[in-house]
Structure formats: C-alpha cells, structure tokens
Amino acid sequence: MTEYLIPLLVVIVITILVTIKRSKKVKFIIWGLVTMILLPKMLGLPLSIYLFILIFPDAPSGILAGLIAIGIVMPLIFLVGLVLLLIGIFKIKRADLENNT
Fold it and tell me: Among 57, 69, 82, 88, which is least packed by CB within 10 angstroms?
C-alpha cells in the first residue's frame, strides 16, 4: 500500500506548494489538471482493489478488480477533475461582475 501512498502524497504536496498565493481560478485549473492526469493512475488501482474486497470478500482478486479500476473508478476521478477544470476556466471574478452592471 505504501508504494501507492508515497507518490500520491508527493503529488499532493507539490500541487499545494504550486498553488500557494494563486487566485482561486488558477487553483481550480491546476487541481483539475492534476486530478484528471495524475490521480486516476495513482488512485485507480488501490481504490478499486479496496472496493473489490469490500464488495466481494470471498472472491479471488484479479481481473474483476482491474475491470472495476478501468471501468468505474478511473472515469469517475477523471470526471471530478474535468468539473474542477471547467469551474476554473469559466469562473467569473466578482469584480468583473460588479463592473458590468
């Protein structure tokens, strides 16, 4: 489990350090990209194996855990990242809204 946990923590710490003193718009964009590109690969397999063990405790792990990772967990994490990215792209600053009225 630590072979997945250490790189995940490194990515999260680096992302937090990069987003310090940035606007919320840039933070959403950076976190969206990290969530779309890096986290499905890092969280997909361990999370799917954990879910597989919870759902099917007596079955041998293997192909079904891989299918859960590829078919369910990775696209869900990607969609969360896509939503964060779109929020960052289309976020309107309050100052811009007040100037237009």
Answer: 57
Torsion of CA 31, 35, 3, 71, to 10 degrees: 170
Number of structural domains the chain divides into: 1
What is the 8-class DSSP label of residue 73?
I
The pLDDT of residue 3 is 73
- Give the structural domain span for 66: 25-100
Query: Is there a domain that residue 77 lies in?
Result: yes
Dist. CA 19–CA 35, nearest whole Å: 14
User: Rounded CA gap, 88 and 44, in Å?
Assistant: 24
User: Taken in order 69, 17, 94, 89, is the CA torsion positive or negative?
Assistant: negative
Is 14 a member of any domain? no
- Alpha-carbon span 101 to 42, nearest angstrom: 45
